[in-house]
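Both lines are quoted verbatim for reference:

——
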Amino acid sequence: MKVTIVFSYNGSKFFGSQTQPNFRSVEGELNRVLDTLQIPNRVVMSSRTDRGVHALRQVCHLELPNSWNSKKLFTPLSKLVSDDISILSIDEVDSDFHARYSAKSRSYRYILSTSSPNPFLKEYISYIEIENFDFSQVQKAISIFKGTHNFQNFRKSGSDTKSDIRTMFEVRAYQWKGLYIFKFRANGFLRSQIRLIVGALIDLAIGKVSIQQLQEQLEGKKVYSRYLAPPNGLYLVNVQY
């Protein structure tokens, strides 16, 4: 039987979502509990997140032995997993479902503050003390990323994808209660793509680059910004199937 597990996690407590030798990861924590329950199979996650990046609704699939089902798994998995992960639901799915390849889109949100850091929120909001932050420039420029583009200049090296072309269905930037919110929804994302886009928009807002230069970088002509925005303000919001 194949099931999906929908869960959230505090990314500041993990060295990323993907299993890494000698480091605590989200996959590793879930698989640790499966070992405790004597379930030999491993989870397959819909998206990888970097160290410090959070998830509100991450999805993985899992092949269960015949002696298990979704209802039987929910309670022990919820109780045995660490407090940094919350299991939201477990449901049966078709045998051909794949958490990563069946996804039609993924949604992320980035939260930024330019004020002095709040010690109680600094793990969940990116605090960058900036004077003369022109957010109106961000709102003018962010739409250039909407649509289908080759994002080769907005990814970190080491990506295992065969193509750098992605389609952005939604890009938006707005203010909420003194915070700057960036929203992105696409058919997929490259490694650190959102953090590099947000970093470039921050460079724009402080006058380091122009909208024209960001357009040229997106078109693959020249790289003007490689500022990688901090991970703690980034959230995987949802995966759509």
